[in-house]
Amino acid sequence: MSALAMAGNASYYATYTTVLLVVLAGVAFAAVAFGANRLLRPHRPTTEKLLTYESGVDPVGEGWAQTHVRYYVYAYLYVVFAVDAIFLFPWATVFAAPGFGWSTLAEMFVFIGFIAVGLLYAWRKGVLTWT
């Protein structure tokens, strides 16, 4: 192996050494911070401190309660339409660029079609009525 090739390998591995040193410094910093927190914090547990805190209301009864599935469907519909909106903005900026006209328009109609089918399904199931 020539001296030039060995020098090239040494500089190649030197970049990884720098990355390794930065990672080790980050891990050491986090370890020191967590260790200092554990050593310096006051630790006096009482029964009041160990109670569950829920917005200033004392816990009463069991911690288990049923939630109607409709609320999860509302959250799911929100996520679907948020993703739709996030996809529409970049598409609108690219649509006018040369070479993206009709193909992106057809793809957007397919995408909006899927969203419309989901909305129609939710409407038919009565999810969008608040009762």
Automatic annotation (TrEMBL):
Describe, as the record does, how this protein assembles with itself and its partners: NDH-1 is composed of 14 different subunits. Subunits NuoA, H, J, K, L, M, N constitute the membrane sector of the complex.
Q: Which reaction does it catalyse?
A: a quinone + NADH + 5 H(+)(in) = a quinol + NAD(+) + 4 H(+)(out)
The protein's organism comes out as: Actinopolymorpha singaporensis
What family name appears in the similarity comment?
Answer: Belongs to the complex I subunit 3 family.
**This enzyme's EC code(s):** 7.1.1.-
Its Gene Ontology molecular function terms?
A: NADH dehydrogenase (quinone) (non-electrogenic) activity; NADH dehydrogenase (ubiquinone) activity; quinone binding
- What gene is behind this protein? nuoA
State the function annotated in the UniProt record.
Answer: NDH-1 shuttles electrons from NADH, via FMN and iron-sulfur (Fe-S) centers, to quinones in the respiratory chain. The immediate electron acceptor for the enzyme in this species is believed to be a menaquinone. Couples the redox reaction to proton translocation (for every two electrons transferred, four hydrogen ions are translocated across the cytoplasmic membrane), and thus conserves the redox energy in a proton gradient.
How does it sit in the bilayer? Multi-pass membrane protein
Q: Which GO terms describe its cellular component?
A: NADH dehydrogenase complex; plasma membrane
- Record bears the keyword Zinc: no
Q: Which InterPro entries match?
A: NAD(P)H_OxRDtase_bac/plastid (IPR023043), NADH_UbQ/plastoQ_OxRdtase_su3 (IPR000440), NDAH_ubi_oxred_su3_sf (IPR038430)
Q: Which compartments does it reside in? A: Cell membrane; Membrane
Keywords of the record, alphabetical order, are: Cell membrane, Membrane, NAD, Quinone, Translocase, Transmembrane, Transmembrane helix, Transport
Spell out the protein name for this chain: NADH-quinone oxidoreductase subunit A
Question: TM spans, by residue?
Answer: 12-34, 71-94, 100-123
UniProt key word Nucleotide-binding:
no
Output the superkingdom of the source species.
Answer: Bacteria
